[in-house]
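Hey all, quick one. A colleague (J.T.) asked me to put the zinc ion job into the tracker so the inputs and the structure tokens live in one place instead of scattered across chat threads. No bug as far as I know, just bookkeeping. Sequence used:
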Amino acid sequence: MKRNCPVCNETKREFLIKQKFARISGGPDLSYTLVICKSCGVCFADDIPSQKVYDGYYKKFSKYEDTQGSGRHSSLMDAAHKRIGKIMASYTPPSASVIDIGCATGNVLRHLRDQGFKTLFGIDPSPECQRVARERYGINSKAVSLDDFKPSETYAAAIMSHVLEHIIDVAKSMTKIHRLLAPKGFLYIEVPAAHKFTEKPDGLFEHFSIEHINYFSPKTLEVLMNRHGFKKRMLKTVLNRSGFYPQFPVIISVWQKEQVLVARRPDRSLAADLRTYIAYCKRAMRPIEKKIDAIIRSKQRIILWGAGSHTLKLFETTRLSKVRIGAIVDDTLSLQGKYIKGFRINSPGVISPDLNLPILISSMHFQEQIAHRIQHQLGLANRIIRLYPKK
Ligand SMILES: [Zn+2]
């Protein structure tokens, strides 16, 4: 479907790059075209499926449950959540009621409680997240999307951390949040910092995530917030050293519900920043393409380890589908039994001593963790092929 600009609702756009992802059986095609809004300068994904399709995808393939469902947080991710608690405490008294929109397993709200807040509530579409939030932290939440949420009261503050970049109808969500907040209420927003993708670049356009469809800079975020009746109180760009993509730049910001008379001007530099990032990724792709081409030439059968978004992108960006793949394996339970390009995704348990093929690791951030798992946890002697330099 075609989208208007999620920030300013204009229709004139400029092409940036296409991002193609292979499909997992039973899952949707989430490929998209990245464009820049000619009016406000924000970057967004166009030619995307409907929100219903995304909702179904999140339900079926939720990685948030796999890594967070048990309430396991890396200490680094925990530090990022703690930071939100501290920031909120510096803007609102602990008597304030706070709602976390997209609260996952409630870890951010737990840190707010540590800061003395008492009236805490969260919403998240996943029932599994709701269960863990209650059992693990005693945090009350409701398994509902923002769209379907019918609040019975207003809140003094709201948190939206890593949510806005996933939403198709941003204006609708912002209108809802505005209504949800009491006059002068505070809103915490955290999103990836698209103008800083060049600072910690990677090889496979990983900042252009399969799930992210809005790419903000500080200026474009301010245009959005001003349009919806929020005034800037604080905005910073920092490097998050946590999460699924370690060391990714994020915008952290606090806004207050207040009429804004002079709205922020458009961002004329985000397009250039993203073009620099794209050029970097294209250069960084060359050694990866070479490695895959060498495997094709050798006619060697391999085991492909990893069926996540890295692999979905690798299939469409390189000649990986020409490689003789003996098996695809992945530890993620929600992926096992499904198919990519006709290959079944298996548990790594299928790798027996008889299946002594080289293992190609398809992951950048978890490459060494996977190598360690192969050699030391599973005790396999298979040769390992890395796509990225060994760290
Ligand atoms: Zn726009």
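Adding what we noticed when we looked at it: Residues 275 and 338 are 35 Å apart (CA to CA). Confidence is low (pLDDT under 50) at residues 65-71.
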